[in-house]
Amino acid sequence: MISKRLLTAGLCAAMLLPAGASPKDCITVAVLSLNDFHGAFIRDARKGIPGAAAIWQTVDSLKRVYPYHVTVAAGDNFGGSYFSTATQSRLLPVFFNDLGIRISAVGNHEFDNGTAWLAQKWAGSDMLPRGWELTYVCANVADASGRCPSYMQPFATEEIKLPSGRSITVAFVGLITSSTPLQTRRANTAGLSFDGRYDAVTATLSRRPEYAAVDSADVRILLTHIGTKMSGGSPAWHDADSARIAAFADPRFHAILSAHSHEAVCGRINGGRYPVVQGEWHGNYIGLIKLTVDTVSMTVRGAEAELCPVRPDVALGEGPRRLNAQIDSLLRVTKTAGGYPLGRRLTVCRTTLTHDRTKKLQLTEVGGLVCTAYAEAFRSAARLGDDAIVVGTSHFGSIRAGIPAGDVSVLDVGEILPFANRLIPYRITGSQLTTLVNFGLHNTSYGWLQTNGLRIGLDSEGNVSSLTYVTPGGTTKTIHPQDTCYLVADEFITTGGDGYDPAFFPAAAVVCDCTLPVTTDAFIAYLRTLPAVGDGTRHTSVVLP
C-alpha cells in the first residue's frame, strides 16, 4: 500500500549544492499534475470521487505553499464520465482556467469525439473563458504526412516569474500510450499512427532544431499518458511497450508525470533516475514534483515526488463554491439523448454491485444487467418473442463503475455507461456466437466479454465447448451451431476496440430494420422496469469441465 506522502531523493550526486552555492539562492519550483480526471466534476462519496470544487481548493492550497509553480494535466481530462458526456465537456475549460492549466498531455479519451472535435478545442463554446487556450503536447503521434497533427505539438514551455524579474522556464515533452487505437473507436484515430518506440521518439525529437526551446529550458519534464503501477514498493511502467519507456534515459530531464493506469504511484523510475508521480484518477490525488532550483546558476539541484490527497470535505473558498453552483445549474437543465433528466430516480439497489476494472477476468452482475438491457431493447424494437435467442454483449472496459447500494439515478447509470455508444444488432449463427464468446473469455488484455442469458461450458483446455441460453421466461435452450441468434453489441468493439476483430461482427449480418437507443438510454429504460436490483442474479455463468 502506497503512503500518501512518498518522497524521492535527488536525481544524482551532481544535484547536491556545489561549492560556493548558498541555500538562500535556491527556491522550490512545484509542478502540479491532474491526471485521468475524466470529467468527474460531481462529488460522490459512495464512489470515492472528491469533486472538482475540492480539487480546485487543494490546488490553491498547494500554490500558497509553493508560490513558484505550474499546473498541468496528464490526459483523459474528459470522457469516462456521463456528466462530461451529457454536457459536451463545456465546463472543462472553465475548470482548467480556474486551476491555471494551459498544457496537457493527450490521453486516449481525448479522441472520444474524433480528431475534428479535438482540434476545435471548445471554440465557439458559450462557456469558453476569454484568453484561455489549452496546448496538447504529444511527440509520438503522426498524421498521414508523418508530422505531428496541427492540433497538438511535441512540447510546450511555461514561464514562472521570479521577484527579481527573471523567470524559470519549464519544458514539457508529451507522450501517449501506443495502445490508444485499441481504446477508442477506430474511426476516431483514422490516419494517425502511435509510435511505441518512446525512447527513440524522444531521441529523434532532441535532434531537431526546434528542440532548442527544450534544451534552453531550466526544468524539463516528460508529461506522459502512459501508465505506471507500484511493484514491490517501487514504481514500474504498465504499458504494452513498457520496455521502450523504461529505456528512456535522457540526463537532461528532471522528472516524469504519468497517467492512464488509474493507480496511485510515487517514487523513482527508470533505474531510479527520475521522480515519477501519478495521482490515481478522478482527482483523488494531485501529483507534485518539487524541484530545488539554484537561481544563480539557474540549474536544478534536486527533485522529489509527492502525492497530495484531495479531501472531499475540505472547506471551500469563493471560487470553488462558484464552480459548484455552475455544476448544479448544468445538472438541473441537462438531459440524456433519450430525454431523461440526470437527477431522475430509476430503481433501488439492495446491495453494492461491484464492477472493478482492475479485476477484469470475470463476469459481473453489473455486466449481466447491462447486457440484458441491450438484449431487451432489441427484443422490444424487433417485436421478438421470449423464445428468440437474443444475447447482449459488452466489452469489460465500457462499464466504468458498479452500482452503489441505495437509490439509482439517471446520473448513476450514466457513470456506469458514460460513452452512450450506438447499439448494433446482428443476426448470426450459434457457431459465430460461440467463436465470439470464446475470444471474449480469452481477452486477458482488456477483460472478459460480458453477456446475458448464457450458460457457457468449457472444455479441459478452457475453450467454449457449449452454449445454453436461458430465455426471459426461464426456458433453457441448447444453442446449436446452425441456430439463428441475435447479437446486440455496442459499436466500440464492432470496429476493433479492445482487440476485437471486426470480422466477429459482419456488416452483412446487421439487422437494419429497427432503431435502438444508445447504450446508456437502453440501460436507463431497462432499470425503470425493475423494482430493485442487487439480488445476486446470475445473468451468465461459466461451467468448468
Helix content: 10-25%
Output the CATH topology of the largest domain. Purple Acid Phosphatase, chain A, domain 2
Q: In DSSP terms, counting alpha (H) and pi (I) runs of 4 or more, how many helices?
A: 13
Main beta sheet, described? 6 strands, mixed
Number of extended strands = 26
Major sheet: arrangement of strands: 6-7-9-12-14-13
Query: Please, how many domains?
Result: 2
Provide the CATH architecture of the largest domain. Answer: 4-Layer Sandwich
What gyration radius follows from the Cα positions, in whole Å? 25 Å
What's the CATH H-level homologous superfamily of the largest domain?
Metallo-dependent phosphatases
Architecture blueprint of SSEs:
Blueprint: E1 26-34, H1 52-65, E2 69-73, H2 82-86, H3 92-99, E3 103-105, H4 115-120, E4 135-137, E5 141-142, E6 155-161, E7 167-176, E8 193-194, H5 198-205, H6 212-215, E9 219-225, E10 228-231, E11 234-237, H7 242-246, E12 255-257, E13 264-269, E14 274-279, E15 285-294, E16 299-309, H8 318-333, E17 345-349, H9 365-382, E18 390-394, E19 406-409, H10 410-416, E20 423-429, H11 430-440, E21 450-451, E22 454-458, E23 464-470, E24 476-478, E25 484-490, H12 491-494, H13 519-527, E26 540-543
Parallel strand pairs: 1-2, 3-4, 7-9, 9-12, 12-14, 18-25, 22-26
Antiparallel strand pairs: 1-15, 5-8, 6-7, 10-11, 13-14, 15-16, 17-19, 18-21, 20-25, 22-23, 23-24
